[in-house]
Amino acid sequence: MARHELLDNVTHKDVRIDRRFAPGCGYDTQVARIFPLELGGLQAEYPLFLVRNVETGHYEPVALLGFEESENLYLDDGQWRARSLPLTIERLPFLIGFQQADEAGSPASGPVVHIDMDHPSVATDRGEPVFLPHGGESPLLERVNSVLASIHGGHQANEDFSRTLVGLDLIESLNLEVEFNDGSRHSLTGLYTINEDRLQQLNADSLGLLHGKGYLQHVYMLLASMPQLAVLIERKNHLLDRVAAE
After folding, report:
1. What pTM does this model have?
2. Cα 218 to chain centroid, rounded
């Protein structure tokens, strides 16, 4: 169970973050939600797809981390085996909340930092401090603030990215059947990708629209990540081989 609290330097003056990338440490997730600004940095590390948000109807990019629920194949021996982290992973155990405030006499809702006190990385006797001894923000919290700001802006960017791709009819569903070395099979459903044939057939105006929004590069980054699926399958095979040898 999550226990979210508004972060402050009095209540949480002794809180530290002991970030250990291992199963059971709060990073057990099959997919990580990502944002368009991350695609260039993540495409060489993760297979990237789109999924449909059932609440909003928009398509959102994700990094695939495993083949089963709660399976994260990037966790190994206390390390995250990739050179870059998705922002939604890096921000843990912090999250964006909203607080009512008066601005020029009118009520307004502004983003504030919350912390999940039940996350396994939260500690008081080990790890990096969230606040400095006199109450100032630690380097860790400064980075968290930057990450949360990027995530906050990324939600709107995802919506416009989705509308543009849908408007150009570039999204197609993708059902994958994966077979591992031990003969087991796994079906990946609910994933979407870019239809390359339709992309190649876009006229100059449509290509200009994508380029003008900065989305043409994002589209190519999604496609460029596809070889990472074979790498992820190999990670799974190594895991299965290790388990079989025990």
Report:
1. 0.91
2. 15
According to the 3-state scheme, what is the secondary structure of the chain?
CCCEEECCCCCCCCCEECCCCCCCCCCCCCEEECCHHHHHHHCCCCCEEEEECCCCCCEEEEEECCCCCCCCCCEECCEECCCCCCHHHHCCCEEEEEEEEEECCEEEEEEEEEEECCCCCEECCCCEECECCCCCECHHHHHHHHHHHHHHHHHHHHHHHHHHHHHCCCEEEEEEEEECCCCCEEEEEEEEEECHHHHHCCCHHHHHHHHHCCHHHHHHHHHHCCHHHHHHHHHHHHHHHHHHHC
**7-24 residue pLDDT tens:** 999 999 999 999 999 888
Which tokens in the block code for residue 114?
């919350």
| Amino acid (one-letter) located at 47 | P
CA angle 221, 232, 20 (to 5 degrees): 100
Contact status, residue 193 vs residue 218, Cβ threshold 8 Å: no
Alpha-carbon separation of residue 129 from 3, 134, 148, 242, 246 (angstroms): 19, 12, 18, 36, 38
Amino acid at the residue 206 = S
Distance CA 140, CA 143 (A): 5
Q: Which residues make Cβ contacts (< 8 Å) with residue 77, sequence separation at least 6? A: 22
User: For residue 3, which of 115, 148, 129, 110 has the smallest C-alpha distance?
Assistant: 115
Q: Which residues pair with 33 in a beta bridge?
A: 62
Cβ atoms of 222 and 50 within 8 Å: the answer is yes
- End-to-end CA separation in angstroms for the chain: 33
Summarised one tens digit per residue, pLDDT across range 141-162 is 999 999 999 999 999 999 999 9
